[in-house]
Amino acid sequence: MEAMEVDSPVELQGGGIVQPEVAAVAVGQAEDANAPPVISDSGSSTEVEEEEDDEDNEGGQSAARVPPRLLATWAFSQRAVGRAAATPSAAQGAPMRRRLRQGLRLHYPSQTAAPSRGFPDFLLRAPAASVAEPESGSTTEGSESEDEAEGDENRTAAGMEPVNLASPAGPNLNAAIQHIPPQEASTTNSSSAADGERTEAQSQDGQLAPASLASVQSSHSEESDGDTCTICFEAWTTAGEHRLSALRCGHLFGFTCIQRWLKAQGQAAKCPQCNKKAKRSDIVLLYAPKLRALDNSEQESLKKSLEQEQSLRRKAELESAQYKLKLQVVTNKYGQAQQELQELKALMAQTGRSSVPSSSTPSASSSSASLLLSLSQRVDGSKTLQYSFSKGVLVSQAGGCRVLSYCEPLSCLLASQPSPHSTLVPGCGVKKVSVVNMKASQYLPIHSKQIRGLSFNRQNDSLLLSAALDNTIKLTSLLTNTVVQTYNAGKPVWSCCWCLDNSNYVYAGLTNGSVLIYDTRDTSTHVQELQPLRSRCPVASLSYIPRAASSSFPCGGIIAGSLEGGYFWEQVNETTYRPHLLPLEASGCTDIQVETESRHCLVTYRPGRSNPSLRCVLLALNRTPQQDSSQLPSCSCSPVQTFSAGASCKLLTKNAVFKSPDGGGMLVCAGDEASNSAMLWDAGSGSLLQKLPADLPVLDISPFSVNGEHFLATLTEKMLKLYKWE
């Protein structure tokens, strides 16, 4: 290490005080203390003018009696001495001019005490090995102000470590170092501690500033990341050699940069970003004045999530509907089981009481045991529950009965028949059959020709809608037994039904395949006509499906069945209907019946060449979801179960699909002309449950319930038979 320079007065032997230098320089210049010495350092470009004051000989002598102290403490103690006495060099007005060695100034923390312009600060200079040299020709004049001293202190404290100084040789220098009064030592220590805290705070501030600057620069680089070449980190251009270009993998570079990159790597060239194989022919120039890519990856993922959520929601709604149906079935079975259990407990208690006093009566115990066995069989399952014949009622002696309907408010069945007194009251009407006493009560004349359809609404106002071949549909009040409204359709009417969503509208199926819509508030004519989709065959059956909160089939409308298929008229609003062709067989359809709650329909096909027997097909209605605004949703049906009967079907019979009285599913009942009976199937398993005999072919079937008891009525040309579920 080169010799250090100390800017402090040194006591000489002659009593004068001069500025101490390196030991060799101080001893050599002791004889000529009045001449201002100039010490030149190689490579120095900074000139500092300093004024030095001499001390009194008394101060120098007292300093020799002070115990040895550190060099830094001695340096600061000389400031107080310099204030009291002036040096001979200052008195003579000869300033000392020195050239300083280029480098950093190293200050100890104790050197930042209150500065004195009369005495120069202590400077310890060492060559700077790691600091860049200033530009050539630049000069800096150092003042002795307080701000400059503090700036030098921060720079030296952050850039260099403290240097251990060797004590200069010579007794005079040692004596001068020891010149520190005891009173000034405490003052120097306190000021040095305060200056050390200030220097530490300044060094912490100096460390925070580069960190914040680096964060700002990194954020700025992230923002401009998409506008610079990743090879040279320069902005690409729209023209020239460094124009925007891309590889086959899609990453962007400057043209010259990527070309040199691939050329340097040779055959094993790869993309600098993704390391995919690339070659010079893969470079594509992009003609974009300003390239910006909209990041829609999150939007696409949200769309996929929405579609997946919608599909899962539809599936969940379908499963929920199925589980609700199963829950209802289980609840009904549980209620019946609870009731039968109570009956069984009561019977067991009664049997136990009767067996104790009369143990000699085996007939009573045997009868109780038989009752207990029959009741236990009922508890075991629903296999023993079936329809049993209750009563038969003669409706028409001459025959001619056709359709059947049940009026719930009056608890009576209505069967169509010709007038029993054709000479007095010609035409056709209906006969009331009370289900309370199982007797026919009275006949109501309505139409002049055969009646083909009967229907009641949901308002329980006992208003009967009837359709006949006399080109009319009529509304008859069963409370007053009079016709209250007549509509002339102009053609024979084969079927009719009520609108279950709005009781002001009724529908009539004509012989030419059209469906007329009537408003009961308008007594003149029909309000709308629905033209047939295919052939103009008679509408043999007409049923209305009400709207429901069902995910599979939520819409409402009319299902019309003709001899050559069926179609569904979806009711969009009160005046708009959208047609949907049902995928049924081309011919042989005789009847379509609907179960409104489960949204199932029963289609009956007469025997043909491909199927030699009567078939009843249970279909489930469904609706495809709407894909977009241009494509409308379509309604269709899919087969669930097929039931086969006899090989004869000459009449247009009407069948029934309804809920099982025990709540365990649905039942299907259809007339079989070959055996003159009504066949009962389980819709779930497709198994034949019962065969209800009849004397003539069964033309119509109607299930109903009265006071919690379930019945099934079958109609032939003459008779009405009632069966009870037990």
From TrEMBL:
<keyword id="KW-0863">Zinc-finger</keyword>
<feature type="region of interest" description="Disordered">
    <location>
        <begin position="183"/>
        <end position="226"/>
    </location>
</feature>
<keyword id="KW-0808">Transferase</keyword>
<keyword id="KW-0479">Metal-binding</keyword>
<dbReference type="GO" id="GO:0061630">
    <property type="term" value="F:ubiquitin protein ligase activity"/>
</dbReference>
<keyword id="KW-0862">Zinc</keyword>
<dbReference type="InterPro" id="IPR037381">
    <property type="entry name" value="RFWD3"/>
</dbReference>
<dbReference type="InterPro" id="IPR056527">
    <property type="entry name" value="WD40_RFWD3"/>
</dbReference>
<keyword id="KW-0227">DNA damage</keyword>
<dbReference type="GO" id="GO:0008270">
    <property type="term" value="F:zinc ion binding"/>
</dbReference>
<dbReference type="InterPro" id="IPR015943">
    <property type="entry name" value="WD40/YVTN_repeat-like_dom_sf"/>
</dbReference>
<keyword id="KW-0677">Repeat</keyword>
<dbReference type="InterPro" id="IPR013083">
    <property type="entry name" value="Znf_RING/FYVE/PHD"/>
</dbReference>
<feature type="compositionally biased region" description="Low complexity">
    <location>
        <begin position="132"/>
        <end position="142"/>
    </location>
</feature>
<keyword id="KW-0853">WD repeat</keyword>
<dbReference type="Pfam" id="PF23419">
    <property type="entry name" value="WD40_RFWD3"/>
</dbReference>
<dbReference type="Pfam" id="PF13639">
    <property type="entry name" value="zf-RING_2"/>
</dbReference>
<keyword id="KW-0963">Cytoplasm</keyword>
<feature type="region of interest" description="Disordered">
    <location>
        <begin position="129"/>
        <end position="155"/>
    </location>
</feature>
<keyword id="KW-0175">Coiled coil</keyword>
<feature type="domain" description="RING-type">
    <location>
        <begin position="229"/>
        <end position="275"/>
    </location>
</feature>
<protein>
    <recommendedName>
        <fullName>RING-type E3 ubiquitin transferase</fullName>
        <ecNumber>2.3.2.27</ecNumber>
    </recommendedName>
</protein>
<feature type="region of interest" description="Disordered">
    <location>
        <begin position="28"/>
        <end position="66"/>
    </location>
</feature>
<keyword id="KW-0833">Ubl conjugation pathway</keyword>
<feature type="compositionally biased region" description="Polar residues">
    <location>
        <begin position="184"/>
        <end position="193"/>
    </location>
</feature>
<dbReference type="GO" id="GO:0005737">
    <property type="term" value="C:cytoplasm"/>
</dbReference>
<dbReference type="InterPro" id="IPR001841">
    <property type="entry name" value="Znf_RING"/>
</dbReference>
<feature type="coiled-coil region">
    <location>
        <begin position="299"/>
        <end position="347"/>
    </location>
</feature>
<dbReference type="GO" id="GO:0016567">
    <property type="term" value="P:protein ubiquitination"/>
</dbReference>
<dbReference type="GO" id="GO:0036297">
    <property type="term" value="P:interstrand cross-link repair"/>
</dbReference>
<keyword id="KW-0234">DNA repair</keyword>
<dbReference type="InterPro" id="IPR036322">
    <property type="entry name" value="WD40_repeat_dom_sf"/>
</dbReference>
<keyword id="KW-0539">Nucleus</keyword>
<feature type="compositionally biased region" description="Acidic residues">
    <location>
        <begin position="47"/>
        <end position="58"/>
    </location>
</feature>
<dbReference type="GO" id="GO:0016605">
    <property type="term" value="C:PML body"/>
</dbReference>
<dbReference type="InterPro" id="IPR001680">
    <property type="entry name" value="WD40_rpt"/>
</dbReference>
<comment type="pathway">
    <text>Protein modification; protein ubiquitination.</text>
</comment>
